[in-house]
Design goal:
heterodimer; A: 939 residues; alpha/beta; Rossmann fold; seven-stranded parallel β-sheet; six-stranded mixed β-sheet; 39 helices; B: 208 residues; XPF_nuclease (chain A); ERCC4 domain-containing protein (chain A); single-stranded DNA endodeoxyribonuclease activity (chain A); damaged DNA binding (chain A)
Chain lengths: 939, 208
């Protein structure tokens, strides 16, 4: 085992894989280039890190990790460092991340070797600019192999790599089998993209996996929690809305949409909105505006189903109100004819009523101007899982007292897992405040006490979250006021009709008359605090939401924080970590309950670090179940007890079940395809440049050019491509057509085809937005200034229909907001700018090839210099697109002064915190005023 | 010599008789011109258009060339209005692109006769219109601008922008809120928050 340290051929490499099947996978993928598809939660990243470690420890290598997410990179980095520390391999250097490195920094780092995590966009550019010589690469490890489609950046990287380097390894990994099963011979296609031949499949039902995991099992308690009656009502109502929406779509598009077997049942667990959208995409232009809206509604309704389970009753109602608010006042002023059809259903009425009644009840009486108290009672229904959770925790406490001394290596911690950070926070707050009494002090709260008493006499509810829920309700009322005052400012055309204004005024007066003296509110709202809700046009059928300002004020008073509540800390979290030692100490893990959201592979580490004795899965999650299995099996003696909570007959139960089934089915399909897969030997064949083709190209060109330009055309064809364009698949496709993409930072244009031809590429979405913000106009101006043949490329999506949106109203003649009209305006303004229409990036590549024929090759240095002002740096500045776009959208920021801002200000947050004087130094007084006002305007 | 003092009318070549797109030119008046007209449509003092259906082009590939020979270069804007009426459009469109580039034609694609008619109407109507509608002009109005800034982040929509700013009270506070606080805003899930967080924390410039 201990080989001599000087022996480089077999350095001692310690592998830390606890389970037999994990070792098996490691050995086989180490020996041979493979695509490993592993079932979720079985420790894929661990195998990857061990593999990387084996190369790292051996030293003298250049291994690139491609396709990993940010979190995965971090995970791998930490795990590698850990393994290096354990194995004490002298040559190991750990994972190096190139994100923050400069171009030359990367070149130097690559030359030294090691294991690198590189983002695909940067790696493409580095490979193309020879910043990293492909021959030097020892191998590539591709994560998330399911995402490597023919046009993806990763496929492009592998192609360039294989072209120049036939001996390096490629090892690909994925833990989601589903994408490999759609389409024709999907596995074979994927393998081709990955330049691999052997798939290696590891479903949960694989023999070695099952053997490894089933020898020791964890104790599992399944708890089927019933939904409350009103929750069931709401779920039924939402499902009805979904059903109606679906049949509405079916009615209008029976030819395009195949929705056999669509029913409420399937709507529960399928991502029906996505399926519908996919079916409609090819004919999207022919679909009516109404259908489009319904498709959008479906997404919203599906979200609603989830929120019903995860949000508390007040937040859920708040969410619904938010929907109503944006439905009734669309800012573009289109009024209410655009309201979603489901809002008019009876079911929607039930939905809104029930949801509101879960939060509070009250009658709408606005007869008297002085808003008489009309029995507004907070109801504050609690989520059934809450009390269940409390019960479990009590049980755990009792149990842990009974067997104190069972020392099995676990820390006795209780781990509560839930779906996301939002829910986490909710649970934390609940556990902190559960059963905290609501001491009432003024007589207003008598009704409240009654409400509490009611809860108690019902007997069932042992644990009360009243404290938290009251806090939520207050937050909601605050929000509601903010929203209305905000909306008034937002539209800034609040004087619609005189009568409207009058009612508004009355409402305002009434509020001022009885505005509660609430200091906390005052701070925030300023003078604006009493602004009434603009009497917005709530959807015809939905009256519930038409909350009168007076009524809200009334409810607000009922909910005034009692003294006890006020004394308690208002906010959780957001502690500045000063004086750490004075106030903090490490908890004893024995008595700790940790609430944590599911975070994919990161959870493996969580389990290892916390060593929980009890795990409460507040929501079901397939991968996490497996992680617990792996954790349990990896440690001989550790006992784990798992509580598994789910709402019976709900979306989450269905989703869990179908996820398990889908994964299993996918693996079965893959195994079948693997069995019948033809071995493709061509994968490596395409690597070498075909000499014959190169010969033909010269001949061809000479003939057409009459021999006169032989020197020019003998060069391999190239296109100069702006670095930002490497997000799209076009550079990759050009490369596939043997046109070399040269990556540089361009100021003018996106693609330079020849010294004269400059192309600005616009996808349809870009086209619409850059017409809106006028960018395309300035870009055309710019191109005209520097190039003889400026062109705008209008590129459609491969999977979408090749046509523009249908005209809005055919009878009314052109309107300036039509896309077509805007194109005409552009053509009239720039008669010299050519339009190129392309149905897909594939076609664009062909068109480019055609346009380049007989043209001289473009010069990269010239192209880079175009449009740069004197003294500006030429090379290597990459801008982050989204932040820069946000910057440019700010008032006061122009096409000229935004550069000064970028010079001195790091990011958006920093900009938002600058004083007016500081801003003035950058952009001048006038602009500074605008920018400052934009950030600091309050409501 | 053909008079091109068209005024407010579209002058249509008699060659176009029977073209279904004519019935969709309604917003502006049109009339037939003299038979010697080289273009299919005269849309202004310096603007003309040729009409081509891909179906026809496939049958008579040389037609366009003959027409171009006689068109002359009296017009600054020469439009080739193409009706895409076949599904195998890739090859012909590639050829047409090349032709347009070498013959100074601006290509406009339409997928239906009404759409083609609409294009002609629009060219005529906007003959003297300033292109302000497509020039950089961001609304000076606060709400619109705020939405504009927020929606630059992928996945953030109007509603999200409005709820976020109304919850935090100002854009500055919304930007400075912690990620956890932002997660509490209705409709802001982890993914959206992550993207937004990245957009406002990421430096404008990377690398040197």
């Amino acid at each position: 085992m201990a080989s001599s340290s000087s022996d480089a051929a077999s350095p001692a490499i310690k592998i830390s894989l606890p389970l037999a099947f994990q070792q098996e996978i490691f050995q086989s993928v180490r020996a041979e280039d493979q695509l490993v598809i592993l079932a979720r939660g079985l420790g894929l990243l661990r195998i990857v890190t061990n593999l990387l470690h084996s190369y790292d420890a051996a030293g003298d290598c250049l291994v690139l990790v491609v396709g990993a997410s940010e979190a995965e990179v971090e995970w791998i980095g930490e795990a590698l460092a850990e393994q290096n520390a354990l194995s004490k391999a002298p040559k190991a250097r750990g994972l190096r991340i190139t994100d923050a490195m400069s171009v030359s920094g990367r070149r130097a780092a690559y030359a030294k070797g090691g294991v690198f995590a590189v983002t695909s966009r940067i790696l493409q550019v580095d490979l193309l600019t020879h910043n990293i010589p492909p021959e030097m690469i020892t191998g590539m490890v591709v994560l998330r192999a399911d995402r490597v489609t023919a046009t993806s950046a990763e496929a492009f990287i592998l192609r360039i790599y294989r072209q120049k380097n036939n001996s390096g390894f490629i090892k690909a990994f994925s833990d989601s089998p589903e994408p490999f099963t759609t389409g024709f011979a999907p596995l074979a296609t994927m393998m081709k993209n990955l330049h691999l031949r052997t798939p290696s499949l590891w479903p949960r039902f694989h023999l070695s996996v099952a053997e490894s995991l089933e020898s020791k099992t964890a104790e599992v308690v399944e708890l089927n929690v019933g939904m409350t009656e009103s929750m069931q009502q709401i779920q039924t109502a939402i499902l009805q809305c979904i059903e109606t929406s679906l049949s509405e779509i079916k009615k209008g598009n029976s030819r395009e949409v195949d929705m056999e077997g669509w029913d409420v049942e399937s709507a529960l667990h399928r991502q029906f909105d996505i399926v519908v959208r996919r079916q409609l995409d090819p004919v999207w232009h022919r679909v009516s505006r109404k259908t489009k809206q319904i498709v959008g509604d479906l997404t919203q309704l599906r979200e609603m189903l989830n929120y019903l389970l995860s949000y508390d009753s007040v937040s859920f109602w708040q969410y619904l109100e938010g929907i109503l608010a944006t439905q009734s006042t669309s800012a573009s002023g289109q009024g209410k004819q655009n309201q979603s059809p489901w809002l008019f259903l009876d079911a929607a009425q039930v939905l809104f009523n029930t949801a509101k009644n879960r939060a509070y009840t009250g009658k709408v009486t606005n007869a008297g101007g002085e808003g008489i108290p009309a029995g507004l009672v907070p109801v504050l229904e609690e989520q059934p899982k809450w009390s269940q959770l409390s019960e479990i925790l009590d049980e755990i406490e009792r149990e842990s007292i009974l067997r104190l001394s069972s020392n099995d290596g676990s820390y006795g911690t209780t781990l509560i897992m839930c779906s996301d950070a939002k829910e986490c926070r909710q649970l934390r707050e609940y556990l902190q405040t559960v059963n905290r009494p609501v001491v009432t002090s003024d007589e207003k709260d008598e009704e409240d006490e009654e409400a509490n008493a009611n809860l108690d006499t019902e007997g069932e509810v042992k644990y009360s979250a009243a404290y938290m829920m009251r806090r939520r309700l207050r937050g909601y009322l605050n929000w509601k006021r903010d929203l209305s005052s905000f909306k008034a400012a937002y539209s800034e055309i609040s004087r619609t009709t005189s009568s409207n204004a009058q009612t508004q005024k009355r409402a305002q007066e009434s509020i001022h008359g009885r505005a509660p003296a609430n200091k906390r509110r005052r701070v925030r709202g300023g003078a604006n605090g009493g602004a009434a809700s603009t009497s917005r046009a709530a959807g015809g059928s939905v009256q519930v939401a038409d909350e009168q300002a007076a009524q809200v004020a009334q409810l607000w008073q009922v909910l005034q924080p009692t003294e006890a509540e006020q004394a308690a800390k208002q906010e959780i979290g957001a502690d500045p970590l000063d004086n750490m030692e004075d106030y903090y100490e490490l908890f004893d893990l024995q008595n700790l309950a940790v609430v944590h959201p599911f975070k994919g592979d990161m959870d493996d580490r969580l389990l290892e670090e916390l060593r929980p004795r009890y795990i409460i899965m507040y929501n079901p999650d397939t991968a996490f179940v497996r992680r617990v299995e792996v954790y349990r099996s990896s440690h001989n003696d550790r006992h784990v007890k798992v509580y598994f909570l789910f709402y019976g007959d709900s979306v989450e139960e269905q989703r869990f079940l179908s996820a398990v089934r889908k994964e299993k089915d996918s693996f079965s399909k893959l195994i079948k395809e693997k069995g019948s897969m033809a071995v493709t030997l061509t994968t490596d064949g395409m690597a070498v440049d075909d000499p014959q083709e190169e010969f033909l190209r010269t001949i061809n060109n000479t003939r057409i050019a009459g021999g006169g330009r032989l020197t020019a055309t003998a060069e391999p064809p190239r296109v100069i491509v702006d670095i930002r364009e490497f997000r799209s698949s076009l550079p990759s496709l050009l490369h596939a057509r043997k046109i070399e993409p040269v990556a540089v930072t361009l100021t003018v244009g996106d693609y330079i085809l020849s010294p004269d031809i400059c192309v600005e590429r616009k996808s349809i979405k870009d086209l619409i937005s850059s017409f809106k913000n006028g960018r395309l106009y300035s870009q055309c101006e710019n191109m005209l200034q520097h190039y003889k043949q400026p062109m705008v490329l209008i590129e459609f999506d491969k999977d979408k229909s090749f046509s523009l949106e249908p005209l809005s109203e055919l009878n009314s003649g052109p309107r300036q907001d039509d896309l077509q009209s805007k194109l005409v305006l552009l053509a009239l303004a720039f008669p010299k700018v050519r339009f190129i229409w392309s149905s897909s990036p594939y076609q664009t590549a062909e068109i480019f090839e055609e346009l380049k024929r007989n043209q001289e090759e473009p010069n990269p240095d010239q192209a880079v210099a175009m449009g740069l002002e004197e003294g500006e740096e030429k090379e290597g500045i990459i801008y982050n697109q989204t932040p820069v776009e946000m910057l440019r959208a700010l008032p006061g920021i122009t096409g000229k002064n935004y550069k000064f801002v970028m010079q001195d200000v790091d990011n958006f947050v920093e900009l938002s915190n600058m004083s007016e004087a500081e801003l003035a130094a950058l952009v001048g007084k006038e602009a500074a005023k605008k920018v400052h006002r934009f950030f600091n305007r309050t409501f | 010599k053909v008079s091109r003092a068209t005024g407010s009318e579209i002058i249509v070549s008699t060659r176009q008789k029977g073209n279904p797109i004519l019935q969709y030119i309604k917003a502006v008046p049109w009339s037939y011109g003299p038979p010697t007209l080289a273009a299919d449509y005269i849309l202004g003092a310096s603007t003309c258009a040729l009409f081509l259906s891909l179906k026809y082009h496939k049958l008579h590939p040389d037609y366009l060339h003959t027409r171009l020979r006689t068109l002359g270069d009296a017009f600054t804007l020469r439009i080739l209005l193409v009706l895409v009426d076949i599904t195998e459009h890739t090859t012909p469109l590639k050829q047409l692109t090349k032709i347009c580039v070498s013959n100074n034609l601006t290509m406009l694609l339409s997928w239906s006769s009404p759409e083609a008619g609409r294009y002609l109407e629009a060219v005529k109507m906007y003959e003297h219109t300033q292109p302000t509608a497509i020039m950089e002009k961001l609304s000076e109005e606060y709400g619109e601008r705020m939405v504009e800034v927020f929606t630059r982040v992928r996945g953030v929509n109007r509603t999200d922008a409005v709820t976020a700013v109304s919850t935090f009270g100002s854009v500055r506070r919304a930007a400075n809120a912690s990620e956890e606080e932002r997660l509490m805003v209705a409709g802001w899930g982890p993914q959206k928050c992550g993207r937004f967080e990245r957009a406002i924390r990421e430096p404008f410039k990377v690398g040197k």
